[in-house]
Amino acid sequence: MTVATKGKTKPKGTKKHSGKKGRKSTIKVVVLIALVALVAGSAWLYKRYTDFNGANINLQGRQTAYIHIPKNAKFNDVVKLLTDSAFVTNIESFKWVADLKKYPTKVKPGRYKIRNGMSNNQLIDILRSGKQETIRITINKFRSLKSLADLVGSKIEAKPNEIYKLLIDNNFLQQYGLNKETAYALFIPDTYYFEWGTSAEEFLARMNTERNKFWNEQRTSKAQNAQMSPVEVYILASIVEEETNKDSEKPDVAGVYVNRLHRGMPLQADPTVKFALNNFEIKRILNKHLQTNSPYNTYKNKGLPPGPICTPSKTTIDAVLNYNKHKYLYFCAKDDFSGYHTFANTLIEHNKNAEKYRKALNKRKIYK
């Protein structure tokens, strides 16, 4: 039997429509979540990209600077160095990229050139490569080993006192055939390039290598012909270096000293007296100066002094090796103060020249 139901009748299709609406809401939520995730992910990726490739080096107005990483430094030491220098804008991003590129296990000592605006990636590539910027050191004329050590020690990792200590250590210098008096002879003035991380021992070993290159067979043979060793030539060249800055007359000055050496005469070189007094500012050597008790006083002692009195130039060393073979035994500065000298064969002739120079000094009121 069929019973007719009165009242509300549920519209056809209501259930199906409600399902579609729910699914649309779900899709919207999923899409929204996906968009949020995408935005968040994009932000994270952008941050990581900028951490990796964005500028993170600020040199405060400079275009370049140098980072010096000492031997045996660890990653934490590098981080501290960068933090203290304030070169790195965001040190945390540097550490993140460093970890990513495994730099903490590849720290290499040295002197590294960095540029303003570099990224972490660029900086770490340089540090990790170990490719250093070399140091340019020019050795000119030095009158003391201490001042030479101070110059070199201001440019490489080795400290000045470390270098100087070796230069006055006879036991150390013995391996180079030198002692603390002749240690100057280890240096041939020139411009050399070093890695910043060079130690004192490595620096001096390099200088010895350069010295051996300079003293080739030809120069050694010339020294033998002059009846001198390379070190003795160097000592004489140091005196010639102090006597005149005129390259054209250096072979003549050297010839005078070689003549005196061969005749057993004292050199009577004023620069050696100044060295003995440790005063190269003296403009006039007086009798009281000549009484100085020192093995470097060549007025009191015959032959060469115990060691060089400066580091002579290559030109001066070669001037000694190629000294002019003349008969001069004396020379005196010209009274015109041109820097040139007058040469003489006899003491009488020399005394006349010396008197002219003394009068010129008196006229200019140069008494000491």
Q: Mind explaining what this structure looks like?
A:
- There is one protein chain.
- This protein is mainly alpha-helical and 368 residues long.
- The protein has 15 helices and 6 strands.
- It has helices at residues 14-53, 75-85, 91-100, 120-129, 145-153, 160-167, 170-173, 200-214, 217-225, 230-243, 250-262, 270-277, 287-290, 314-321, 347-363, and strands at residues 64-69, 110-115, 135-139, 190-194, 330-333, 341-344.
- The protein has a two-stranded antiparallel sheet with strand order 1-2. A two-stranded antiparallel sheet has the order 3-4. The protein has a two-stranded antiparallel sheet with strand order 5-6.
- β5 and β6 (341-344) form a beta hairpin.
- α10 crosses α14.
List keywords for this structure.
two-stranded antiparallel ribbon; 368 residues; disordered N terminus; 6 strands; elongated
Number-wise, the strands total: 6
Silhouette: elongated
As a percent range, the share of helical residues equals 40-55%
Radius of gyration: 39 Å
Largest sheet: 2 strands, antiparallel
Mean pLDDT: 88
Low-confidence stretches: 1-8
Query: Which strand order spans the largest sheet, edge to edge or round the barrel?
Result: 1-2
Helix and strand content put the structural class at mainly alpha
Distance between the termini: 149 Å
What pattern of helices and strands is seen along the backbone? HEHHEHEHHHEHHHHHHHEEH
